[in-house]
Amino acid sequence: MKRTRLTAALSALLLLGPPLHAQSTASSSAPAALTTTAGVRQTILSNGLTVLTKEVRGAPVVSVQVFYKIGSRNEAPGVNGIAHQLEHMMFKGTTTRPVQFGRLLGALGADFNAFTAYDQTAYHETVQREKAGAVLALEADRMVNAQIDAEKLAGERRVVLSEIEGDENDPQYRLSRAVQAAAFPNSPYGLTVGGTRADIEGFSADKVKAYYKKYYSPEYATLVIVGDFQTDAMLTDVQKYFGGLGKPGTKPVKTSVPLVGTRSEATLGSPAVKAPIVLKEPGATPLLSAVYPLPDINNPDVPALKVLDYILLSGRTSRLYTALFESGIAADGGTSPNHLLNGGWYEFNFTPAPGTALPTLDKALLTTLADVRRTPPTADEVKQAITQIRAGEVLGSVSVDAQAGSLGMDATTAGDYRYTDRFLAALTKVTPADVQRVAQKYLQDSSRTVGYFEPTQAQQGQASAATGATQEAFNAGPPVDPAEVAKYLPAFPAPGSTTVSLPEQFKLPNGLTVFLLRDAGTPTVALSANVLAGREFDTDAKAGLVDLVAGNLLSGTTTRDEAALARLIDGVGAQLSPSASRFGVAIDGASLSADLPTLIEGLSDILQHATFPAAQFKTSQARAVQAVKQADDSPGSVAQKVFRKTVYPAGNPWQVFSTAQSLGTITQPDLSAFYAAHYRPDTTVITLVGNFDVAQTKALLTQKFSGWKASGTAPSVTYPVVGKPNGLVRVNPSLPGKTQAVTYLGYQSIDRKDPRYYASLVLNQVLGGDTLSSRLGTELRDKQGLTYGVSSGFSAGKQAGPFVVTLQTNPADTEKAVQAALSLIQKVRDEGLSATEVNTARNTLTSSFTVGLSNPAALAQTFTGFYSEGLPLDELRQYPQKIAAVTLAQVNAAAKSLLDPQNIVIVTAGPTKPSTQ
Fold it and tell me: Which of 89, 242, 414, 699 lies in the 20 to 30 Å Cα band around 437?
């Protein structure tokens, strides 16, 4: 189940008031004031550029984000997708820096990306603080100097089409697209953000350039900078790079006007499509999608609608969870209220449980909505929803990039960077009557447009297999010279050294290991726990047992039923989420500092006292079967599964996957037995990072977990030695009806303690560590436009895992892309990398390391992960030095020993014939 979340425009808050420390429970008095804008400074340059700055100390990083007031709202049929196409072109280089911008940002060690939405297009980078000026220089450059010509557009058009075809592989995307278009036939909000194939193929360079010249200008832009810097000095840099752009005396544009004639922007009032839209297409599971028009983001009804959404679906006590999931009617789904500049919509997407007809699911949904229209929610429901929303906002504000993103979205969607402050102030005044009123106003049956997806086939075609040489030869082009990239990289001061603060460690007599790191700069606490009870313990006969155990930890304990557990956690807006992986069960969580005792109480209860009630088990089992069916309809999931089953022999833990048959053999006693044998204190680690009193927290953990006992030796798994394939092994599982294929290339490789590990990181960073800046990305995506996504990696954990290259391609391009990848890997193996490439990769990895650990949750998960893999935490502190010590000779030796494109498994999952769409 996908729980509801606020839109990105409401994702970052800071809690005002004194520092929070671990204490008993939240006060029952009126909620304390929350604000997103404390410390925010708005500056408007003479050219109309709006600049928002906010100093945030703690981690030595800065997030730089540029928002442009152009999105799908500025489009019409015929030019649908042009904003998204332009976003792609912004990475193709400029007249002053004719080099892929992904390579420049990668060389800075930036965590970067971009997105197009209905109301804006945004570019965001988080870097070490010393490199913020360099990012400003790059963003200013591509604001006015982007290279947009027919040749570059032709290559990137193929990449965009690959991305769109990847979306179209998902039946949910196709259904939502049809429903959205029918719900808003006279609005650009009825268009897809990515666009249509016909429109994308019709874009000329002149047409794309016209959009660029119109909207990529200072008066249409909002520059947001959040992090560790001094504001006046930063504004001096902003003026230096952006001040000379555009025209002096220009005022910021409040609302961008579409460049070409478009349809009405009113989204309310369109007559709803009465009968369900029915799509009968290839797929695995039925789907339901319903849309109700909603008002724009500045409408005073928005706070009450947000509360309504949380009451409907935000936890295990919410209305739709009880009516659809607990009842066994639905297997998956979620809700999403969207409020944009000129309107909005409320989307409901659900998958019926096996054996449930779509009309039955639809009737249950309509009945639940009718109940909330007929009878107002209780005061407790409203209070809990407000608590969850407020806490969720604080928990989402920890990282500088989240704070910057929120300010930018508020400024460009709501027209005011202080929007969330107004929203939160209004939120505390929402009453049960308000919630009932907006339900009656916006959720009438007559207002909705609904669609059903009815799969016409759910079975994969037969896989074809072959071994031997491939038929087509392809020579990879020369790599981009790193010296050429360095020539265009803006200058920046050398970053200062960063030392990772290590946590205090203690171990209880029962073997439970705990790490505690206090961070007084946040009003939150991040939890990361891990139990060595992962999927490696699954067997073919009962594959899926590990996930069912993890998924039912919150279903009830000896002291609390499912509802009581939900009230404990949701009542304070905390988060506690178990999930299984290969080597363990991760339990991630977060809370406000004041609510840490509640978080610990919940964790303690589910780790020691879970009971796996039969009713909840049966419901989760049915949902797991449905999830397997959906995975078997996904090219990515099928390619991964067939790849593992080809690389590893039967019985190897790496090749065990759950099936409908294996899930059907699992019983409730199986869950209880596995839990009793594998959930042990001596195989569990708990990490807390945040604002708490260490001594008090240590005492509380000791009190809650000292009684947890384990007997005998902890279970273990044997991993047989696996060799590489002999020659090329090709397997092609068929998935009729798909528009994109996914390919896995690889073989068994190294573990985390292999002496070549650090050299492999540097090697892989150059080879395929980043889609835009790596050799594979440069060749397959940037030069040839064969793929939207390509990456490589070594799965080097406590056990040896595979080296894998993944590709997403149009089926017509798959063979060419595979041959290009093999040729490039062979070239790297034979010729090695250059000293400049290795040096750039080392710098990128060490810079990314600093940026990645700036988030307390990521830091907590890293501590837990290192310990679970049997690594000393001091290894984390030594990481930058170990990367810096890797030599060119070591990397090239690793390439010769670890890369072997002549003996490799290649699995392509997709349609049997090339896509002609």
Answer: 414
